[in-house]
Every structure is written in structure tokens, then in C-alpha cells.
Amino acid sequence: MMPDLGKYADAVLSAYGVSLLLLVLLVVWTLRQGRRARRALQEVEKRSKRDG
């Protein structure tokens, strides 16, 4: 099922692995930043309601 990559198999597969790892890390980082921003926005909204 996997194509024959010949002598480049190690380089190609490691490039795929690194790319996949970077994509996963980018998604995790983005989700964490989103949660952090949402919490900060909720805090600002809470303060603005309290201050009137």
C-alpha cells in the first residue's frame, strides 16, 4: 500500500513525521491560546458589568 521510496524512504518518512508533529503542536498551542483569551475576555466582561 505504501509506495516504494527507495533510498529516500528515511528522509521522506522523517519529514512526514516532523510535519505531523509540528501540526499537532500548532493545534494544541492554538487551543491553549484560545482558552487563555476566552478567560481574559470573560474577566474583562465581568469587571465591566461590576463597574457599571
Question: How do the helices and strands line up, and which of them pair or pack?
Answer:
Blueprint: H1 9-51
Describe the structure.
It is a single-pass membrane protein. Belongs to the CcmD/CycX/HelD family. One of its GO terms (cellular component) is plasma membrane. Its main location: membrane. Required for the export of heme to the periplasm for the biogenesis of c-type cytochromes. The protein is rod-shaped and about 70 Å long. It starts with 8 loop residues before the first helix and ends with a helix. The chain has one helix at 9-51. The longest helix has 43 residues, at 9-51. Helix content is 83%, strand content 0%. The mean pLDDT is 93. The protein contains one helix and no strands. By secondary structure, the chain is mostly helical.
Key features?
rod-shaped; 52 residues; mainly alpha
What is the averaged pLDDT score? 93
Separation, N- and C-terminal Cα atoms: 65 Å
What is the strand tally?
A: 0
Strand residue percentage: under 5%
The poorly predicted ranges are: none
Report the total helices: 1
Taking all Cα atoms into account, the compactness measure Rg is 22 Å
Shape: rod-shaped
**DSSP helix fraction:** over 70%
Which structural class best describes the helix and strand composition?
Answer: mainly alpha
Order of helices and strands: H
Major sheet, described briefly?
A: none
Membrane topology: Single-pass membrane protein
Protein name: Heme exporter protein D
Organism: Roseobacter cerasinus
InterPro entries: Haem_export_protD_CcmD
